[in-house]
Design brief:
Helices cover 68% and strands 6% of the residues. By secondary structure, it is α+β, with helices and mostly antiparallel strands.
């Protein structure tokens, strides 16, 4: 019952938003009262379908129906046009989900180009064809103007998809503004520069003799700046700022896209905005993907491939960091060295897969039962280490006991056990070599048979 109420609420919201944005776009319908070059509902509908699923299609249908009914006054024509608009959204949703990874379409450049083709070119032809054909058949449009109306309808829907859908999805993906002071300052300069440049280009500030020069390209460096420095969400936002000012200026007869007819001017500016939107998003996605790859490489450099713990290199870095921290704060730290008992016997008896699983079992215990500030690492072979900041000898012994108990009672077969040695800096050593050597001595002291330990103590 609750899900039904939520579905009805989402349908109602989509219908209201669709109707409101549709009526706003139809205010600029110049070649026909039902065809406009500014059509945000396509992008809103597709974003809603990708977020909530296709079950809310009645919202798009109702919004489109009432928007067209209040425009033409013809019920049958409004139903046909609304059907085309709804099919457009459903087909775009299916194609993007099937071939462009759905809501994750804007993570990779190749998927962004697929999205632009499928949602901005292919699916929008459905609505334009059904809508313009129904208008011509009902006498609301002249057949001689079919091509002009169709192009206007199709381009308006396509640009609405590539501008609005990414903006909605990317802001919904991460609505939080986790910006540093430096990022806020840089963003302020970015958008101030973009706004100023677009305002100059599309604000009628150039002499009529040079206003038709390709000055719109002065805006592109700011989009590249947004893509390289701030990623997909800021690039989509910057594109929307550009689109808003450019369309406003073009509607007032300003800027390089101003032509004899206002509809032609809008088609030109929409084409420009659509192209730069796809380009900037693809560039931002490529940069983000490259950063993720670099982070992955850095992680692999410092991570043990089998267990996922820190490797020897990161272990040494962690120890060096704690030694430097001790020099500033005077707070000691401890190191645990762990040795998995009988790994060779496990490999010989049960196979190397079981032996590798035993190493991973110990690694999982360390991940779960170590603090966030600790650094568990694979020291080498069947040996592990844990760096414990601000930890005394007694606390280190408690942690070692807890680890031994957890691995012994993990419930998997065959059972395994672990020996643990510990040392504290600076009491047991004042360098990396000495502290590790001290921990190693206590580890192998624990691994000695009881009789050998008694004999050694007697000596």
């Amino acid at each position: 019952m609750r899900k039904k109420r939520e579905s009805f609420a989402m349908i109602a919201v989509l219908a209201v938003v669709y109707f409101g944005t549709a009526k706003l776009g139809l205010r600029f319908a110049l070649v026909n009262p039902s065809a406009t070059a500014l059509w945000a509902p396509t992008g809103i509908t597709l974003a809603a379908f990708l977020i909530f699923g296709s079950r809310i299609w009645p919202g798009a249908f109702l919004g489109a129906f009432f928007a067209n009914l209040t425009t033409t006054g013809a019920v049958l024509t409004s139903i046909i046009i609304a059907t085309g608009n709804t099919l457009e959204g459903l087909v775009a949703w299916w194609l993007v989900t099937r071939f462009a990874r759905g809501p994750q379409a804007f993570e990779r450049a190749q998927d962004i180009f697929k999205f632009a083709f499928l949602a901005g070119i292919v699916s929008t032809a459905i609505s334009a064809t059904i809508g313009v054909t129904s208008l011509a058949l009902e006498g609301f449009a002249q057949w001689t103007l079919y091509g002009t109306i169709w192009r206007t309808w199709w381009l308006g829907d396509g640009v609405g998809a590539v501008i609005v859908t990414p903006l909605v999805l990317l802001w919904r993906e991460n609505p939080h503004l986790n910006w540093t002071r430096e990022q806020i300052i840089e963003l302020a300069f970015l958008f101030l520069g973009l706004f100023s440049t677009v305002w100059i280009v599309f604000g009628g500030h150039f002499h009529s003799e040079i206003k038709n020069y390709p000055l719109e390209y002065l805006c592109i460096p700011f989009l590249i700046w947004a893509a390289f420095r701030f990623g997909r969400r800021k690039a989509a936002t910057a594109t929307c700022v550009l689109a808003g000012i450019a369309i406003w200026g073009t509607l007032h007869g300003f800027g390089p896209f101003s032509r004899e007819t206002l509809n032609t001017s809008l088609l030109l500016v929409q084409s420009f905005v659509g192209i730069v939107a796809v380009t900037s998003l693809a560039l931002a996605a490529e940069v983000s993907e490259r950063k993720r790859a670099d982070e992955r490489v850095q992680q692999l450099v410092g991570t043990d491939a089998l267990t996922g713990l820190a490797n020897y290199r990161r272990l040494m870095e962690a120890v060096e960091l704690e030694i430097k921290r001790y020099g500033r704060s005077g707070r000691p730290f401890a190191i645990l060295l762990l040795d998995l008992d009988g790994l060779k016997k496990l490999n010989d008896t049960h196979g190397h897969l079981v032996g590798s699983r035993a190493l991973c079992r110990l690694a999982e215990v360390l991940k779960v039962h170590c603090r966030e500030v600790d650094t568990p690492a694979r020291y080498g072979g069947d040996e592990f280490a844990v760096v414990l900041p601000e930890t005394s000898s007694a606390q280190a012994q408690q942690i070692a006991t807890r680890i031994r108990e957890r691995i012994a009672c993990d419930g998997e077969s065959p059972p395994v056990s672990v020996a643990v040695g510990s040392a504290v800096f600076p009491d047991d050593g004042e360098s990396i070599e000495k502290i590790l050597s001290a921990a190693d001595r206590t580890l192998y002291e624990m691994k000695r048979p009881p009789l050998a330990r008694i004999s050694r103590q007697g000596q």
